[in-house]
Input
Amino acid sequence: MRDSVKLSSGRSYLAIPGPSVMPDQVLQAMHRASPNIYAGELVEMTDTLPPDLRKVARTEHHVAIYIANGHGAWEAALSNTLQEGDKVLVPASGRFAYGWSEMAEAIGLQIEVMDFGLQAPFDLARVAERLAADTAHEIKAVLGVHTDTSTSIRNDIKGLRGALDAANHPALLMADCIASLGCDRFEMDAWGVDVMVTGSQKGLMVPAGLSFVFFNDKAAEARARVPRVSRYWDWTPRANPEYFYQFFGGTAPTHHLYGLRAALDLIHAEGIEQIWDRHETLARAIWAACDRWSEGGALAMNVADPALRSHAVTALRLPSPRATDLRMWLEENLGLTLGIGLGMAPPDSAEWHGFFRLGHMGHVNGHMIMGLLGGIETGLSALDIPHGSGALEAAAQVLAGSQAG
Output
């Protein structure tokens, strides 16, 4: 009998929920010698970035660019608008709401977390009730994670604005769109969001290392009332620079900017509405396959209601340790990397090995998703993990149906 044959040579597929697959155009744009950071092409190109970033966020207001990950954007949003001792309300449907609240607590803010579990979105009625009870307006900001990457729950940010308005509450509405911008519909101005944070490495299809804070005039007024913001985190010179270096608080992230320019060109060429539709269709194909697999009794999606699921990431579970077994087998044998489970169980527990995630964000198309699903089907079969049949056919029907007519 022949020894088993590994099939992992060739181009690998990183199907984790960020960093996402980078387009060749982005990689090619970055493959260059360092440019002059004082004059010329880079300086002129950078002026084109804020207007195009605003188009993706659907806002006519301000944007500040940071050389940081999403945690940096969290801190920038808080530091520019709030003062030590201020209270923030944090509805939570996963690990990343807690991450933002921990950031707030670390810089001296009071936090109040409303935990809605790991399988449910914000209960807007309860949030509205809490805001209405805050007649002294001690709550200065509401921090809402649009898509929690750990649970794959997609929350109703527009509904949070409705809860604030119903209570006639002046708190700022802040939205974390790190996992959703450029994937799920988001309308900053139409939804009444005051501050939005995101990162470069997911729907924007650029390597990790840039983050963005979008803010409206109400948030700018809050910044004016803050007596002291560190020179680096202050968004005022970044959003309205007199000199080029002020965009970034120092030396520009040169190659990231070339990559971002290429990514924005791709986004605007496709059109943001079409991008939202593409992500929705690809997500439905994944869910159709997962529904069939789940008939075997082992696999389950974390979010039962499709209307509450992210179109960028899907969180799943298997009996422990089969999720880890599946991930390891796929990476070693097929060159396919799935995302680990985050925040669903303590990382040092046996239960942690029962969760995994699929990233389907940014630069992904139909054949990539079918390849992802085919790989998972292969792994389930190789490891004798119980699963229902017809998954690939169900996914194919979704994609074929989207092209009918």
Summary: The CA atoms of residues 83 and 226 lie 6 Å apart. The longest strand covers residues 139-145. The chain has a mean pLDDT of 96. DSSP finds 14 helices and 14 strands in the chain.
